Amino acid sequence: MPLFLWITLILTLIVASLAVLGIVLTRHPVFGSKPSTQKRLTFTRSKQYNNEKFQYPIPTDMRTDFRTGLSILRDFTKKNPHRQPGYPIPMTSVDPDSLKHPVADRWIWFGHSALLLQINGKSLLLDPMFGDRPSPVPFFGLKRFSEKLPVEIEQLPEIDAVLFSHDHYDHLDYGTIKRIRHKVKQFIVPLGLGSHLERWGVLPEQISEMDWWEETELDGLKLACTPARHYSGRGLSGRDASLWCSWVIQGDQHKVYFSGDSGYGPHFKEIGAAYGPFDATFMECGQYDERWSAIHMMPEETVQAHLDVKGKLLFPIHWSAFTLAFHSWTDPVERAKKAAEQHDLPIATPRIGEPVTLGAEQYPATAWWTSS
Q: Where is the Metallo-beta-lactamase domain (predicted)?
């Protein structure tokens, strides 16, 4: 056989093998499931749904031009020893018995955006990603900074509801859902995300899907699904097939705001006008870059967003668990803290696992990340 035919055959086999591998991988449960045709028909009632995709009202995307791609590749190959901590980060271990009967409104942070919020005597998990890596492939991506969680998953109390902001791997984790689903009463999620949960064994009657500006009640708690400026998608296709959101959570004594992932946008002032003020905001401040600032706020924008929604206490999230950007791992909290101080705003900086009581006279504010 002529050499060029051998080369053609080999290249064809390589392409075919990659195509088969791609099909096999995307069919693995970890990728979740796209909404059914019947469900997609119901999405047409949403103002956010257009051309079979969800959209933010103003143009929102990462820069994808060739020059930007080269700059990202360049930064990816650079070595930054500060992208991860060089020592075990401090963590507070949680007594599982203390979680069973909460007597005050409080939260416990698990790193990144994962929170246990106990309010009105109810236990809510917000974006509970408890896996080791924010990736569909176990060996790909940098590991969680901490070797363990402040409390074992099996020791968590019964969870009244889990709230998700969107379906990205650093927020919605297949392994976590498989481990917590038996102790969760209800999953409350943005439109379309429930399809992933159903594939992973969650009963449809346990799932409530919501559009922006829709409200629901949960045993005396008022929950509102509110806008965010981001995107969704877990596989090689199906980008923006499900909605993304932020959350307003209001109890008898306190009201909090959870930003999810978001670039800065006019929705923050709209949320502040509709639901503010808030006793505390859990506001994204990490994994940012000027090249994708439309979908992830810079830390200074985090503080401005807090002001826009009329927040009182700022708690920066989306950092201190994984490296997903090129900045040093402590930059997000240090920049957010500096900007908050310039505005004379109270900011909480608890260790992972450290309980924080809403309405307390003082909040954790030590620079624990400087310890070594």
A: 124-319
